[in-house]
Amino acid sequence: MNALETRKLDKSFGNLVVAQDISLALPAGARHALIGPNGAGKTTLINLITGALKPDAGEIFLGGHEISGLPGNARAKRGLGRTFQINTLFVSLTPLESVALAVCERLAVTGKWLASLARRRDAIDEAFDLLSRLGLAKDCTKPTRDLPYGQQRLLEIALALAGRPSVLLLDEPAAGVPTSESTALFDAIAALPEAISVLFIEHDMNIVFTFASRITVLVQGRVLTEGPPDEIARSPEVRAVYLGGAKHG
C-alpha cells in the first residue's frame, strides 16, 4: 500500500490545462522530488493533493483511503502535512510558542492555548522535541522575525510535523535560503523519520539528485517521465526540455 497516490488527476482553468492525467505513487518512506520548468504544474499538483484546489477528474489516496472529496483540514487530520513557497509564520511569536500552538491545534485545545500554555507541559515538551530534532532548540525562545531565513524554513517544517503527518509535502523548502544555510536545511529533512514519506519541489538539481530516491518530471501539466536520479540525469528527453537549458522552478 502506498503512503500517497494520485490517479489520472486533471485540472483546467477555462482553456488553460494545468494538470492532465497525473498519476503518482509514493511508497512509505519515500523521498520523492517533483521537478520541471516554470509553469509545469508542480505547485498545482501539491494544491490538488492538499485540497486547496479541486480536480476536474481523478482520485487521491492517502494510506490507501480515498481523500478526493475531503476538505484540506480533514486531509491534514488524516496525516497530510505541507509547507509553502512563501513563509506563513507568526513572526511575533517564538518558535516554541508557534509549534506549541500547532500541537495544541492537533489536540483540539487551541481556544485556550495562550492562557493555559504554561500548564500544557505535554505540548511544550513535544514542541521543544520537534525543534531540537531540526536544530532550532537554542533559538526557540527568540522572536521568529529574528531568525535567519533558513531557520524560518525549518520552523515551517516543524509546524507541519506538529500535525504528525505520514506524508509531508514541501513546496520549494530552500527557496530564498542562502546556499550556506540550504545544506543544513536538507540535512534536517534527510534526518526525518522513515515513517514520513516526503514529496518535495526543488529547483536546485544538486539537492534533488543528492536527496531524492525517485524523481517525477512535469512539463506543461503532464508527467514527462519518472525514475531514479541516475536514470533521470541520463534521459535525453529530460535534458532537452529541462536540465539542458530550461529554467528550473
The DSSP helix count reads 10
Inertia-based shape: globular
Protein structure class: alpha/beta
Q: What is the CA-CA span between the terminal residues?
A: 30 Å
> Looking across the biggest beta sheet, what order are the strands in?
6-7-8-3-9-10
Radius of gyration: 18 Å
- The overall average pLDDT, rounded, is 89
Strand content: 15-25%
Question: Summed up, what is this model?
Answer:
By secondary structure, the chain is of the alpha/beta class. The protein has ten helices and ten strands.
Question: Could you please describe the fold and organization of this structure?
Answer:
The chain is α/β, with parallel strands linked by helices and 249 residues long. The chain is built from 10 helices and 10 strands. The strands form 2 sheets. A 6-stranded mixed β-sheet has the order 6-7-8-3-9-10, with helices on both faces. A 4-stranded antiparallel β-sheet has the order 2-1-4-5, covered by helices on one side. Helix 3 (95-106) crosses helix 5 (121-133) and helix 6 (149-161) packs parallel to helix 7. The longest helix has 13 residues, at 121-133. Mean pLDDT is 89; it is low at 245-249.
